Lipoprotein-releasing system ATP-binding protein
Amino acid sequence: MARGEVRFEGRLLADLDDEELSELRRERFGFVFQYGELLPELTVEENTALPLRLAGQRKKEAHAAAGEVLGRLGLADLGERRPSQVSGGQSQRIAVARALVHRPAVVFADEPTGSLDSSNATAVLDEFLTLARSQGTAVVLVTHDSEVADRADSRYTMRDGSLSAQVREVS
């Protein structure tokens, strides 16, 4: 078993207490779960604005930011709906919007395009690449889709417990 340490923004994560780790996850990381994991009692806009509200941002500003990200992902007209009133693919894009709304330093995405058609998958990947290249956001994306993986700047493959890297030059 390999050993090592994980540092983020100069801090050793093993040295952080639970509160500091929670704050780090809430404010600096964005998460896209494989099945969206939206809160059913909140509207689409409220789900998307949630990271900003948890960070203390005022409702009006949080909802404006949520609406802007939803618009970039083709979901602007769904803001007042509940998760039960949208499709699986829409739910997945809403989860992506929620992960991006607070401009995290790192986005962890588990199969974010798995339930999307090719057009919407391309839109989501374009959004990730735009953030990575314009804001320096790191996107850690897990996928079984080689076309999705081919768009990454760096590609790591795990096979039989071994991790290998393929890095390509970004033009």
In short: The chain is about 40% helix and 20% strand. The first helix runs from residue 18 to 28. The mean pLDDT is 90. Helices lie at 18-28, 44-54, 59-72, 88-100, 118-135, 146-149.
